[in-house]
Amino acid sequence: MNALTDNAAGLTIRPAGEADLAPFFAYLDDHLRDNGANGTPLFQPVAPGQPRLPAGLRIAFIKGIDVPVGQPGWRRLWLAIDPYGEIAGHVDLRGRPEPAATHRTMLGMGVHRVWRRRGLGRLLLGTAAGWARVDTNIAWIDLEVLSANLPACELYARAGFTTVARVADMLRIGGVSHDLSYMTLPLRK
Questions:
Q1: What is the C-alpha to C-alpha distance for residues 57 and 64, in angstroms, rounded to an integer?
Q2: Distance (Å, whole) CA 47 – CA 84
Q3: Phi, psi values for residue 131, rounded to 5°
Q4: Where are the beta strands (DSSP E) in 33-175?
Q5: What 3-state class would DSSP assign to 103?
Q6: Does the pTM of the predicted model rise above 0.85?
Q7: Which residues contact 89 (CB under 8 A, 6 or more apart)?
Q8: Where is 44: in which H helix or E strand?
Q9: What is the pLDDT of residues 16-38, one digit of tens each?
Q10: Within 10 Å of residue 16's Cβ, how many Cβ atoms?
Q11: Sequence-ordered list of residues with C-beta below 8 angstroms from that of 106, at least 6 positions apart, any chain
Q12: Which value, to the nearest 10 degrees, does the dihedral of the CA atoms of residues 169, 181, 132, 69 take?
């Protein structure tokens, strides 16, 4: 899918390439600073204040963007770029680890603190779902979200995702119990 421009906000959403990964990792490191801080819900299953993105996740992005869709380890990433060339948000799709689930994908996304609650999440979800519908044989987009992250849960529900399970006490983050919700979006009827 080509770049999508939201003229009202001056944002461009485009596929990320290898040259985008270093600034993307810097953006994610900064993004993690908001995880559970200053009234922001936990959006990653790590304790607030974790300073850096786990190395394994960096490697998964680096290797995955060149893997063909449907092959183990594939990953696609889109970035929302603001008028100053800064990353305003991202969305990624990746293959599920189960060999028999190549018709499904997992979603991850984030929006920079300055751009939250302004419609960017909806645009990012639409970009990823549109690509999956048109350019792949993927039938479902799945995601996991901390159940207490109500803004994210509500965004996903408005985009058509359905909660298919909520697992109580799935995670213990910083000694605190957290439920995890599993949500899914059908792409093919």
A1: 10
A2: 31
A3: -60, -45
A4: 75-81, 87-95, 104-111, 140-146, 162-173
A5: coil
A6: yes
A7: 79, 80, 109, 110, 111, 112, 115, 120, 121, 124
A8: none
A9: 999 999 999 999 988 888 887 88
A10: 21
A11: 93, 94, 95, 96, 141, 142, 143, 144
A12: 10
Tokens for 125?
């979800």
How many Å separate Cα 55 from the centre of its chain? 17
Tokens of 172: 């213990």
Neighbours of 152 (CB within 10 A): 21
Average pLDDT rounded to a whole number, residues 50-69: 87
The pLDDT of residue 54 is: 78
Element (H, E) at 60: helix 55-64
One-letter amino acid of 4: L
Residue where the block lists tokens 């963007």: 65
Token pair recorded at residue 91: 């969305």
